[in-house]
What does this fold into?
Amino acid sequence: MSEEKRCQIAVSLIPGVGDVIGKKLIAYCGSAEAVFDEGVKALNKIPGIGSKLSKIIKESDTLDRAEQELAFMEKQGVKMVFYADKNYPYRLKQCDDGPLILYYKGENNFNADKIISIVGTRTASTEGKIFCDKMVKQLAQFNTIIVSGLAYGIDICAHKAALKYGLPTWAVFAHGHDRIYPNSHTNVANEILNSGALLSDYISKTEPERQNFPSRNRIIAGLSDATIVIESANKGGSLITANIANSYNREVFAMPGKPKDEKSAGCNYLIKTQRAVLLESIDDIIRELNWDAKTKQKNVRQKLLIELSNDERQLLNILSDEGVHIDSIVSTIAWSSSKVAQMLLQLEFKGVIIVLPGKMYKRVE
It folds into this structure.
């Protein structure tokens, strides 16, 4: 397993191989380790690789650097989750450019029920900070996990509010785990580790350089159900995060501001162009994310689970939250196809499964 982890890290470090190509390489070769065992001719046949990249892969010395990173991780208590692992954030799995690897410290609760990202200006006004605190306080009733970037302004305000109201919070870095940036937020980062997590897709010795932050923002957007923007100019990282969230078909909320206020120009633009929902209170989030209905649905489902027969429970245990094909179900459970179809219909009527296109079936979330 440690050798496969070393190869997973090494693949992510190959020059010219990003997250998308890295996933394709591993999928075609069968494992990260197999990528380095594959011949040049075989690599050339993989769509999107080509002779130039094949040569880079074969000549790569990233395995040595990956070995160093594993040693650093063991010493510093840093863990990793690979995109094919079961505990990899399923929300990020839905993003084509989701990171191959997440390095983290703290709790791994990446598939929690409710996760919200909060971003905004680094030069937050008193009004913006008050609104951020109020919003996190209202989100506390839903046991929401708060995600942000540990930056000055709205980011650190969101983290502090989460800690204040007893919510887990995750800080996503634009650098490795060998430092905290900004250094003045080290105490908050340490406090986050008591119930939350510090995350990054960068290895140690990676500086917090300017170009890393937009890439980091895709993780902030991808980890959550929705992104809240509290104060933003008409350019900057917050708008980048909002645009990425939109590209992932995630909901975006924005705090409205005065027309002439530069700090509100970005938020007002998002609302005006219908790229964000105008956010005034928690009621807007509840309505758009359908949280009340999901809570009621969950209570009904829990009651129904008590009423399921042994066969129905057995069948339900085979299904996943992402969907399973009926042929796979039949081969796994070793029932006749007619019995499987009948049981699936019963579970559908009871509201505990959903039928997807292509004869796929999934549990109700």
